[in-house]
Structure formats: structure tokens, C-alpha cells
Amino acid sequence: MALLNVNIDHVATIRQARGTDEPDPVWAASICELAGANGITTHLREDRRHICDRDVRLLKQTVAALFNLEMSIAEDIVETALELVPDQVTIVPERRQELTTEGGLDCAGNFKNIQKQIQKITDKNIPASAFVIPERDQIKAAMDLGFEAVELHTGPYAQASFAEKSGELDRIRASVDYARGLGLTVHAGHGLTYRNVAPVSAVEGISELNIGHSIISRAVIYGLEKAVRDMTALL
Ligand SMILES: CC(=O)[C@@H](O)[C@H](O)COP(=O)(O)O
Ligand SMILES: NCC(=O)COP(=O)(O)O
């Protein structure tokens, strides 16, 4: 059975909408842990649109479960990770204009640049995972780069039409087998929801799922009634 890391980026998205101090992703991380999450994932974006440096510093100090830092290979972000020493880093591609991560890391096409940065991370003994599309050449390149894990991008599966879904799931299954055959640990994530997660979590060999947006969305809806009651009680 796969372990669950909860991505808490979008708790910070709500905070940043007003630039105040609530909701605090650090509190959210504690609640996730108390509820049984195996790890906490955050993406420290170069533009700091949600999670910021203060958050990752405090999360490093307070998360008792696995702290997985998603990040690009931008030099200053790599420096931050080297100072922080999270339990795991996941290297992702990043574009300022994107709404969310669009594709996988191009391990094959950007080999030299990634190698330069990943070397610093592995030299510090920080376990590193590469967020890649489920394709053999990317998985092989991730292994050649020295990553110990790959996170298979489940966005194409999540976005696929009903007719295309089983094909996307087959791609994930084949990639899991291929990656494990190369000795890589396999994670998966992106776009997973309460509706589409079951077939992915049933795939043999995936050890970790990273799920964020859907869980935080449900939390808003589930918590709203109590939040309104708490406010009316004060009036
Ligand atoms: C890499 C990945 O799949 C995402 O979790 C990524 O971190 C998304 O970034 P946002 O949380 O900003 O959408
Ligand atoms: N790497 C995927 C992740 O952390 C969460 O993605 P999402 O569930 O927010 O789409």
C-alpha cells in the first residue's frame, strides 16, 4: 500500500490571497500528521506564490513525518534546500507563468544542468526524487543522474477522458515496473482526487502518493459549516 504525503501548498495559497497570517500551513501540516499522513509535501516556488521561506524553515523544525520539498533546480532554491536538509527533495520543472506544474522534468534533455545541481543534493545525502512523465527515456535518465526515486506524473491520467484512462493507467503500470527494474523507488502524484485515486493506489510497486489540491479543497468544504457556526456564536 502506498504511503500518503499531503501537499499543503494551497493552504498557503489562501493565506497569500490576503497576505495575512492565516491559514498557517505549519498548523495544517500538524493536523495532517495527527490525521495519519505519512509525510508533508510543499513546493517552494521561485516566485514564492504560496509556500515561502519561513514556512519551509518551520516545517523542517516541526514535521515529525517525512518532509518532502518540491523544487526546481534554480541555484538559489538548491542553496535553500542544502541549508534546510529536508527528508527528501523532489525536483520538478517550473515556469513562472504556469498555474501548476505542467510537464515532467526533462531529465534526458537537460541532463547536464540537472546533474550539476543534483550532485550537490546527493553529496549532502538528501534523498532525491525526479518528477517525470511515465516514459522510459526519462526514467532511465533519472537513474543515470543519480536520483534514487522517480515520482510519476499522474496529471495525464487525471486529465484523460473515460476512454483514455485505462491506456494512461497502463503507461503508469509499465513505468512502475521499468523503474523498479532499474532499482528506483517509485512515487506518483499530481491531479489525484477522491474520484480517480483508487486505480493508481492499486498499482503494485508505488510506495508514495503526493496529493494536495483535492484534499485541501475537501477540507474547505467540510470545515465551512463549523467555521460559520463559530462566527455566528460570536455575534
Ligand atoms: C510537482 C507537482 O506535481 C505539484 O504538486 C506541484 O508542486 C504543483 O505546484 P502547485 O502546488 O503550485 O500547483
Ligand atoms: N507532486 C504532486 C503533489 O505534490 C500534489 O499535486 P496535487 O494533488 O496538488 O495536484
TrEMBL record:
Listed transmembrane segments: none
Compartments, as annotated in UniProt: Cytoplasm
Positions annotated as active site in the UniProt record: H43, E70, H190
Site keyed Transition state stabilizer: positions: E151
InterPro entries referenced in this protein's UniProt entry, alphabetically: Aldolase_TIM (IPR013785), PyrdxlP_synth_PdxJ (IPR004569), Pyridoxine-5'_phos_synth (IPR036130)
Pathway it works in: Cofactor biosynthesis; pyridoxine 5'-phosphate biosynthesis; pyridoxine 5'-phosphate from D-erythrose 4-phosphate: step 5/5
Catalytic activity: 3-amino-2-oxopropyl phosphate + 1-deoxy-D-xylulose 5-phosphate = pyridoxine 5'-phosphate + phosphate + 2 H2O + H(+)
GO terms for biological process, alphabetical: pyridoxine biosynthetic process
Main localization category: cytoplasm
Quaternary structure and partners: Homooctamer; tetramer of dimers.
Protein name stated in the entry: Pyridoxine 5'-phosphate synthase
Organism of derivation: Sedimentisphaera cyanobacteriorum
Lineage, top ranks: Bacteria, Pseudomonadati, Planctomycetota, Phycisphaerae, Sedimentisphaerales
Gene assigned in the entry: pdxJ
